[in-house]
Amino acid sequence: MVSVCLSARRRPPPRPDRSGPVCPRPAAAFPLPASAGPGPFPRGGSGMAAGRSPPTFLLLGAAGGGKSLLVRRLRQLSAEEPAELGEPPATLPTVGTNLTDLRLPQKVTVRELGGCMGPIWPSYYSECSALLFVVDASNPTQVSSSCIQLLSVLSAEPLASVPVLVLFNKIDLPCYMSLVEMKSLFRMQDVVSCATQPITMLETSARNGTGLADVLQWLRTALKDPC
Ligand SMILES: Nc1nc2c(ncn2[C@@H]2O[C@H](COP(=O)(O)OP(=O)(O)OP(=O)(O)O)[C@@H](O)[C@H]2O)c(=O)[nH]1
Ligand SMILES: [Mg+2]
């Protein structure tokens, strides 16, 4: 498992005025449960101190990349009494949004947005404290669309200073592309040098757990050091 942290070229833009209106949610098109829609709150851990909603980490990426399985595994591993991962539970494509609370031990909410929900991803950017972006490293046909999606996410103004973790998942599969190959295909050097966010990259397998301890460690660091 290889990990690399590139970045640090931060050019923090002025913070957006959080008292302004947030993007409207397409409630009629995608009705969400009441628990799925906290209002906007400050990034990082400050919401906790004020007794408000816990920080929300967004989990994005193309359909089938492994987001739902990943977050289930993270919940298993961060439980008070972590159990063996065992066989991966079945997942269904996420239509809408999927909320999972993790205790790191501070409570954090991970909001997965289904890959097929790309058009409404920006509606949730304003409540994001950190971003996880999952790429299927075993699927060469998804590389270019994932790269375009990542560039679009990185250029979104509300996300300009949130820490970003790019996960190259499914490295348990024999056909997976290594971190070196993925970095080359994504032109990561250029992406990182143009990005305003600190970007970390990890290789993972949500199936067998490879790299997930590093993901949890990254989440804990992001909670401690909000941008
Ligand atoms: N081999 C392998 N399969 C994985 C891994 N992660 C996820 N999968 C499988 O990939 C399929 C899709 O996984 P999901 O977690 O549902 O994908 P998703 O990104 O949530 O997809 P959407 O909700 O549609 O956006 C499932 O069959 C998972 O079991 C992995 O690391 N390795
Ligand atoms: Mg899903």
UniProtKB/TrEMBL annotation:
Keywords in alphabetical order: GTP-binding, Magnesium, Metal-binding, Nucleotide-binding
Domain of life: Eukaryota
One Pfam family this sequence matches: Arf
Residue span of region Disordered: 1-48
Residues engaged in binding Mg(2+): 68, 94
GO molecular function terms attached to this record: GTP binding; GTPase activity; metal ion binding
InterPro entries for this protein: P-loop_NTPase, Small_GTPase_ARF/SAR
Protein name: ADP-ribosylation factor-like 16
